[in-house]
Every structure is written in C-alpha cells, then in structure tokens.
Amino acid sequence: MSVTPCNIRSATEVSCVMRQRNRSRPAEQDVLRRSDPPEDGDPGDGDPVDGDPVLRRSWEEDQQQEGTDPDKRMARPFRRLGMAGRVKRILLWILVLYICIPVLVKLCPSVQAKLVFLNFVRMPYFVDLKRPADQGLNHTINYYLEPETGFKIGVWHTVPAQLWAEAQGKDREWYDAMLLSPHPVILYLHGNAGTRGGDHRVQLYKALSSFGYHVVTFDYRGWGDSDGSPSEQGMTADSLFVYLRLKHTISKKPLYVWGHSLGTGVATNLVRRLSDRGSPPDALVLESPFTNIREEARSHPFSMVYRYLPGFDWFFLDAITANDIRFASDENVNYISCPVLILHAEDDSVVPFHLGKKLYNAAAQSKSLSGHKVQFVPFPSSLAYKHKFIYRSPELPHILSDFFGAAHPHA
Is the whole-model pTM more than 0.90? Predict the structure, then answer.
C-alpha cells in the first residue's frame, strides 16, 4: 500500500489528538474520582493519585491553579492562630511591664530619683557646651567653677545685648568686669532634663539679654558637662556657691534669682537659705512652679497610667521621699523675705496651672512676705506658651520692669 502526503498528514494529526486525550485523561479521571462519593470499603479521604507520579504531578498543578493547595489550606488557620498569639504575647508583656515598674521603683528608689532629675537626658544632642556661640550666643562665655574640691560645674555668662559688639573675642576677665556695669544680673536656675544649652533656655537668655540683663546660668552637678551626681542638696549647694560669688563681684548691684520648673524648687531652697542669713536677693522669679515634689509627681503626665493604682503613693511618692527629695516651695515661702513674681501658663501640661496658683496663695498668706510684693501673672491658653515658652510673650519686658520697680534698661 502506498503512502501519500495526505495520509502522512492525517496520521500526524491523529497522533497529536491521541496524545492530547492521554494527557487530559488523568485530570478527567481525577475530577471524576473526586466528585464521586466513596464506595464501600473506599476510605474516600485518601490521596486519589497514590502510586502514579504523572497523576500526582497533574493533580498538584490543578490544586495550585485553583488555590487549594492542602499545605496552604492547613497553614491558614495556623497563621491566624499565630497572629492572635503574637497579640496576646504583646499584651502579656505590657501587663508584666506595667506591674514590674512600680515594684522596681519601690525596691530601687534610685530609679525614681533618676526620673525626677532626668539629668541623663541631653537634648538637643551633640551640643558643645564649651561653644555657646554655636547656639547663637556669641556674646556669652563658658567657664568652670569648683563649688567643692574635686569637681567642677559648667557656667555660661551672657552679657546684655547692648554690649554685644564689645563682647566679641573677649575673655573671662572682661566678662567678670562687665558685671559691674549698670545692668542688673539674673541668676537662672534651669529645670530637669537637658543642659544649660537647651533650646528654650537659650531663647530665654537671648530675650533677657535683649531686655538689658546679664544672665548667669550653670549646670548643676550631674548635668551637662558638670561633675558629680544629682541631689536636691547638691543642686542647692551649687546655686548658693554661684550666687555668693556673683554677689561678691557686683556688691550692691541688683541681683535676681530666676527658677524654672524643677529649678523653682531649687530657687526657693536657695532664697530661704539667703533669707535665713539676712541677705535675700533683690527679687525671686518663679516660672511654671509647683508646690512640692509629691504634688507635682502626682500631677505629672508620666504618672497618668498609675495615678489611680491602689498604693500609688506607697510605690512612687514614698520612693521620692526615700531619696530625700522634697523641693517644698510651699513650705519655703514661709521663710522667704523678698519680692516674689510667679509666671504660669494656663495650658502648662507638665506643671499644672493650679499648682502655681496654689503656691501663690501660700505666698500671699506668708508672714515673712508681708510687706513684700507678691505677684501672680497668668498667661491664657490661647497664647499656647505651655510649659516653657513664656519667653515669647511681648509683655514680658514690661512685666519684669514693673515688678522690679525700676526703669527698664534700653539700648
């Protein structure tokens, strides 16, 4: 029998058709086997392609295409359980941490002391305190004093803006001599955290300098580049040392003490000591003050999550007392004998406004302050001065000059 091209072509087509049918037959059989109910004696849930690698491969491809891979189907609930487990684990750790912190503070009172002082927090970072000009204070000099043998504290002296041009390139001897100029001097005592180079503090130095005041500030022992460890007694001792040195230099010139936040507690401690000696400063300015450290700690935002915890005082406040930290300004005002000015913003969330008002009420009733001017200046919430931006007030120079009772020095 002869073979024609047509016959060859027909045979090839037949062969192709047969191969396609053979390839599709396992998948069809698989579909039929999966769709048919199991017969008697057939487990029904076994692998329908056991023993046939071709059918196995075809079946796995079908499962992947349909998104019904048995491994993936089994993994889904486990993934859901895993996510729930992770959430539960996170919540458990939060609960453990919430319980452990009060216990840790109670067992290690030094932890609470660090939370009060926050001297380990340096903001802004990477500030070279030896170079105040880097902060825009190019009429400021940095130097160091030794309140006690063996350790030093870092000091900045900013001269009035009227002396800015003359101050360029001058040394410490010139700055000390300028303290004898007619301009009054303010000793500024900063609050916790940060250093004397903190941004809001620098802005206040600039403002007071522009008003015509010398500003002398320093970092207490344990802050900034000062040696030692922080304590209420140490902070007060450092303040007394710097104050007496300034007073010795300027003699009868006006010297005012200005404290901010935690520095108001240091300021009232200092002025109480000076008043006991019979040599109080010419005036005391308290910016964002509190009554005492226990009331401030109870009102601080950090204590919000524990404030209503049974035993809050025992866990936290007693730990502060155990460190001999009191800053009892409401007690100190009963021994102070100089004019007192209190500045407080109504929207202060760190030291609540009502604590400043409460301190003012105590000072107004103090017998030692009778005959001295005691003034309270509130700043409305609409101004958004909060805890540390009162220096922005355009009324501040007039408030100060009126309170100090002298004509304000102008350029």
Answer: no
